[in-house]
């Protein structure tokens, strides 16, 4: 595996591989790898000839009051984990390489970015994500890019960018990888102390409870949400949002008649956590799109 710092080096490496007939897979990350990240790398390794993982803690998607300075960073460990997954290139640029002096462009997706995490974290968040992902697509020119369904809204925003800007990349959304007790893996889980770690399981349990209500034949959004809310209250968790939204448009859903996303965000101890389940209107099978760690 090569660790590359510059855009020019990545372009040269990708150009050579493509010249030799390889397809290119990209896994964008902010590092602090866990099984969720590794599952994306594995899928990229299985499907594409040259696997590029980007490792960049993107400052523009953090608000001033968020955890940019404390975000877990361990490039040495990450490099070893990526190498063990057969990754070909770890692209770990500096902020100045990504955002040189005079950088003035912003990729803004209207609508989808104004709700849920866009409302909670501010509009800058998805602008930062859309802009850096668009740059990564321009630098790496992947045939396929791999994202986690854990960040369901992010997947929809990225798909919209690709469609609206006619970018020649296929987006693959990969299942949420969870801890054995159901907590969705996240780099931010390291912020949880023992008490918060125990309470954090309530997020997935709340989504399970809601899904069980749907499974029992109740399609009313309010009833479904109420069952989830009760689990959160029981764990003393005050959700930033707990919402039922259309799985493609993110419009609010009152009655589950098509695929819907049940999404939650909450501060638990020192961590802000998000989770979601895909609720299939037609039945519960594969409804969580989950993978075991
Ligand atoms: P991050 O480093 O947090 O920006 O995440 C990089 C990629 O890994 C994103 O596409 C995330 O959605 C994905 N990811 C993070 N956590 C998980 C998880 N538990 N399961 C699957 N994918 C994940």
Model description:
This protein is an alpha/beta fold and 293 residues long. It folds into two domains: 2-174, Rossmann fold; 187-279, Pantoate--beta-alanine Ligase, Chain: A,domain 2 (2-Layer Sandwich), CATH 3.30.1300. It has helices at residues 7-19, 35-47, 75-84, 95-98, 117-121, 123-140, 152-164, 194-215, 221-234, and strands at 2-4, 24-29, 50-55, 89-91, 144-148, 170-174, 176-178, 239-246, 260-268, 271-279, 290-292. It has a six-stranded parallel beta sheet, with helices on both faces. A three-stranded antiparallel beta sheet has the order 8-9-10, with helices on one face. It is globular, with a radius of gyration of 19 Å. The two termini are 24 Å apart. Mean pLDDT is 96; it is low at 284-289. Bound molecules: adenosine monophosphate. Adenosine monophosphate (AMP) is lined by residues 29-30, 36-37, 39-40, 147-148, 150-151, 174, 176-177, 184-187. Residues 29-30, 36-37, 39-40, 147-148, 150-151, 174, 176-177, 184-187 line the site of adenosine monophosphate (AMP).
Q: Which short descriptors sum up this protein?
A:
globular, 2 domains, 3-stranded antiparallel sheet, 38% helix, Rossmann fold, binds adenosine monophosphate, 293 residues, alpha/beta, Pantoate--beta-alanine Ligase, Chain: A,domain 2, 6-stranded parallel sheet
